[in-house]
Design brief:
The protein is α+β, with helices and mostly antiparallel strands. The protein is built from 5 helices and 4 strands. Helix content is about 35%, strand content about 25%.
């Protein structure tokens, strides 16, 4: 079998998955100038990149972040919230409420997503033909009707 050209040792995933993260403060948070740069550096090691930050009164910390593909959504919250809490813990021991909001954001068009999903059985064949046949039984098709 030929050796793969692209491996984890010679490739770095792009940060292309974007998320909107809202953290809800339980106390007054210091201004971002005091903590944003160190938190940005710290979360990079978790596969998270903080692209933008805004404070929305009275208590919402809004982040635009991007992640590498292997980063699971719960890890995004854990990374940003945990590292921010650690950075400001000397000033605010319990900074955040337990709730948060994490939403994926991006420019994918519905048609592109539907085409991608519809093509998955053809692009990623199962090793066992019986499994492939069984999955095809459950594939749904909704052709667009004209007019």
């Amino acid at each position: 079998m030929p050796e793969p050209i692209y491996t984890t040792s010679n490739c770095r995933p792009a940060y292309q998955l974007r998320w909107s993260l809202a953290l809800f403060a339980a106390a007054d948070i210091p201004p971002p100038g005091a903590w944003l740069a160190p938190v940005q550096i710290a979360v990079e090691t978790d596969g998270v990149r903080i692209l933008d930050f805004h404070f929305q009164p009275p208590n919402v910390q809004l982040f635009l972040v991007s992640t590498q593909p292997p980063t699971a959504p719960p890890e995004i919250v854990k990374s940003v919230k945990g590292r921010l809490q650690h950075e400001i813990s000397a000033h605010v021991p319990r900074a955040f409420q337990r709730n948060f909001s994490l939403t994926s954001v991006g420019g994918a068009k519905r048609e592109a997503v539907e085409a991608y999903v519809a093509d998955q059985l053809g692009n990623h064949r199962m090793a066992d033909d019986r499994v492939q046949e069984r999955l095809q039984e459950f594939q749904l098709s909704f052709p667009v009707e004209a007019g």
